[in-house]
Here is the input.
Amino acid sequence: MKILDNVHILFLSLFIVFSVTIIYYVWFYNPGDIVARDIRNNPEKYAEFVHSIEKRRSQILLGRATSFNALPEDVKEKLSALKYFSEPDHILIDMDSCSKVDIQMIEGRWSLEYNGCGNNEWRGHDEDGFIEIWTVNNFWVVIKDNDFI
Here is the structure.
């Protein structure tokens, strides 16, 4: 009987830990906030990455999705130094109307976007249908596509 009581306590403990973990990830864990916080806490790393792209933009196909492996080595090095989006599925680099680079890094359902002109006016978190947006500052935006299609 003592063994059965211990097994019940073990299963109850595991159920509680599992339930708390699920609740945490569903309601409290938010990668968009985590990436935004990393950008705010380490702006120099992100600035170095952008600067490396600006230096090498003549070697990068503008306006086309590029894989991580197709980037110049120094750009890959700066990108790998980032805590998040260090090896994105695709990276899209283009020129903006103010002759600055725009960068979009796509990793699964997540996208990290840099607007070289600094046109992002609204800051914070917003949901628009299936799209969640975290505006970090005038330059950086984190986007999550929640569409199941």
Remarks:
- The longest strand covers residues 101-107.
- The beta strands are 65-66, 90-95, 101-107, 110-115, 124-128, 131-135, 140-145.
